[in-house]
């Protein structure tokens, strides 16, 4: 969901992040997921989607890895696999929090998203990928206060970047926030309309929920039925589960042998 915040006026305060983000957007190539169908640039989106969800074991944070960065690294590895080795991958990711606490009082608390581009080393280890993602994401989040839709509006003659339809939604679940008898909850990026279908605004989303109360990750894959068959998403979800199992079993075994 794009942010709706108001920014303080100024002369060149946003020039740096504009140029950095704009240049990153314009140089990104089209990423081809294993779609069953293709949508024309002017074709109407039906909004129909499908969702696959499952849980996986907690990752031992002995290497002081932020859970959000770990999730991002896993997602890049997953996309690398299902795109037949695409090394230059750019996705959209939500930014529920601000880079610096002092900015909250200036800009307010809002939810926006930023493009995150990763150029993978096919011969590198997963730990090296995590370290690279940590540095890349930390640098990019510094400019998250400048809404992406403002940058895109300055290039209205260009079509919407396709990578913005591939998304990572990372949600941290803390203690319940109650207002009277009502619980305050965030609005999901997709809404279930029956057992097999969602109302979906993206082509492909991985939602990772990190529950601090029980220290557990939960994953949900949402995909557009305009582009994928239900059977294809079932297959992709099994691939994701297999990657997670192989990856974290290997990591846990190495940690036990230290």
From TrEMBL:
InterPro entries: Condensation_dom. Residues 63-256 form the Condensation domain. Pfam families: Condensation (PF00668). Gene3D superfamilies: Nonribosomal peptide synthetase, condensation domain. GO terms for molecular function: catalytic activity. SUPFAM superfamilies: CoA-dependent acyltransferases (SSF52777). This is Condensation domain-containing protein. It comes from Adineta steineri. The lineage of its organism: Eukaryota, Metazoa, Spiralia, Gnathifera, Rotifera.
